[in-house]
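If you are new to this repository, start here. Below is one unmodified record pulled from the training split, so you can see the exact layout before writing a loader.
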Amino acid sequence: MTKQTKTALIAGSIVFLAFGGIFGWVARSRPPASSPAPAPATPQSPTHERASLVEQLQKKPGHTPVLLRLAQLDREGGHPDDARKWLEQAVAADPANVEALLELGRVCYEAGDRDCAQRETRRILANQPNQVDALYNLGAMAANDGRTAEASDLWARAVHAAPESESGKKARDGLQALGFNKR
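And here is the target side for that same chain:
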């Protein structure tokens, strides 16, 4: 290899390395190409959510979680009669569903249908005699109707069943309000 060839190879290598270095420096100094930020999640409007749930229900009739959510939306939206219809469907689809029975009892009570409220809530106790939420709710209904002996019995059962649960604590407070010291 001649001296000129060596010089040409060295010069070419230097140029190649220089351009490579410059290219690398330029590439590293540029801000990274950013993808657009994801759009913030926007909560669905109740109307849109309701329509989506009704569509889901058409695909899978009697789906209890969908029925419960529809009932909640209608209850919150001031449509207790519609909420009751969804809850009745949920109970028909799953007669032992405690959440559906409790909600149906509440909706019936709020609508002034005390017979329905008590009947649906008592259905829970037929299968689960110590279900604290049902015991508390029935006690509250009895207390509101002036049946204090029945209220105290139901609330004492609720406290005994689950003293540290929210319903157990409310039952204990109810007993104190009736003049019974069950601490």
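Two things worth knowing about this chain: The chain has nine helices and no strands. The mean pLDDT is 83.
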